[in-house]
């Protein structure tokens, strides 16, 4: 086919620059660059073995040319493997790579350990003595809450059930309940609300108290010795400031410390007991708002400074949440003593004649629910106490008099709502009601469950269905406030002593001024005593 | 999260205690595919649920061929009947930021603007309209804010083509466990803001096909994300502390990831005090 004529397709395509493959063959400059890039790619080292393709090919070809084996092309892959193996042979020593123990495997081990059924005669004996503690049916509660879309994954609920079983086997527990889960920054907390057998929890406390009393005595002895030594030196006047008496914490088993709480980070990890809460901690916890990190020993950096670490803050928040959101259908609990309907009534028991209202009623009216945990007063306790009365036992006579002077600032007795108040009495925040009641489903009213959500503590839920009910908390552990949190301001600077001539500094008179003043004074004296002897004036 | 992976993904984000009831789950399983058919979306994401006082809003998003294009948002009160929301405008965003308090749960509820922003109210009155803002507008603005601030995806999950459109990366095999614990492996899935401020050295290391979004490393305030390994270390869960309720999950070395919001729709302005 000769040279193409202009009207034929293919005309001019044999000229350089016009062939149909022009875009695929780059111009020489680009070609050099492409070769360089290809070589650079071949020289790239592998991340796993430290070899690069270029050197590896060079080694293979060198070996082939040296040894000249027969039918090289058939065994080229084996030659490549041999070259690689030869590379590493000298460097191989007796150390081998350890299998990476990923944290996932460790966690899986712990979860597997939960499933081991404990068998032992010791446990059976204990059970007979103290009565079988009831394992809460976590799966049943989870089912009811799931109808409302609340709750953890089923696997996690089951792990929690198994961990609670372990907790019951280890600690002397009377009743146990899954309280909820509080989220943290690094790890979360799973919390169990527990009542220990009487007398069990208290032993640790008294032991600690004795130790602290002994330490205090030692300190006072040392202080006395130092005081005797220092008497020779002039001491600055002692301050007459006495800090306000501390509000004592409530006894274990009553008020805010009615239940003992155990926490763990994940099911499978050991349970840690939280210390009882003091009123000072509750009062401070009301003023601060901090995320939990997930480590119980983390310090809480805040203003006002929180008296304790994260374990105490967690316990204080748990106490506030329990007091604010633990509810039950009205009438489920009744007072143990009918006379004790005053604020101090703390004992309640199940009402055997309780008739559960239908779910529709429970959703419609909030009067069908009642709190069964006492509210916390401003003081930080459930039962008000006058702190200055208690302090009289520990002090000397001198200080008693000072206390009586201070009694003019007596705190007003606080009265809280009595136990078993209906939740319809709860105040909302601005125009947001304190509780929202909903049925779990509108489509199937026969099997729906009444669900309560708290608006004051977002994350607190309660359900009721027939005779069954429960409370739970899933959240970050903070109260809802429509306004932004404003931290407490530092106290104002204390007023200084009012300045007057008595304390203002003046410049000391110089020697000449003093002499001149003295002379002037004596002249005045001499002037006054007309019959004054001049000898004295001349002597000076 | 992807509508198709709802059944598998909901247990992974249930660590925070929030989820969907079986009734809602079943309803979503039926209504989301219908949504895809009716609106011709390529992907449907279940965005989450905003809890109001009298009801909850369930939100879904539909994506077209370009995954980074503005998404269509729909809301429903019962997971069955969906209504399309109009895209958010700047004025609505600015106004809604000043509204405080919980959502009411009624889309036609009107917030009176006069108390909040007198100027805007005056402008509306001049324009002949009432000085109110509807809850629907607040809903639109809140969803847009949450998506912009805390909607995240893992690095490498999406690629940008030279033509500018963004697709899922079919070769994405998941982040390794080591990478999954670092904040720099996650990107905000919105228009990047900080990308051009990076130094030349940093830019040289970036791969323009996968690194075209802002990473979480430089979020202000520092520490506004909580990274945890849950379920025995098999799932990485990121929770936002700025918008409490947003949970992102990813199973390392697999393609599963997604984020969902279960909350009250309020920004946590106390965050700096709480850290």
Automatic annotation (TrEMBL), chain A:
Residues 1-22, 196-254, 387-416, 484-506, 521-540 are annotated as: Disordered. The keyword Cell inner membrane does not apply. GO terms for cellular component: radial spoke. It holds the Pfam family Radial_spoke. Residues 201-228, 393-413, 525-540 have a biased composition (Acidic residues). InterPro entries: Radial_spoke. One of its GO terms (biological process) is axoneme assembly. Keywords: Cell projection, Cilium, Cytoplasm, Cytoskeleton. It is found in: Cytoplasm, Cytoskeleton, Cilium axoneme. PANTHER family: RADIAL SPOKE HEAD 6 HOMOLOG A, RADIAL SPOKEHEAD-RELATED. This is RSH4A protein. It comes from Falcunculus frontatus. The lineage of its organism: Eukaryota, Metazoa, Chordata, Craniata, Vertebrata.
UniProtKB/TrEMBL annotation, chain B:
GO terms for cellular component: axoneme; kinocilium. Keywords: Cell projection, Cilium, Cilium biogenesis/degradation, Cytoplasm, Cytoskeleton, Flagellum. It is found in: Cell projection, Kinocilium; Cytoplasm, Cytoskeleton, Flagellum axoneme. Belongs to the flagellar radial spoke RSP9 family. Its main location: other. The keyword Cytoplasm applies. Signal peptide: none annotated. One of its GO terms (biological process) is motile cilium assembly. It comes from Falcunculus frontatus. This is Radial spoke head protein 9 homolog.
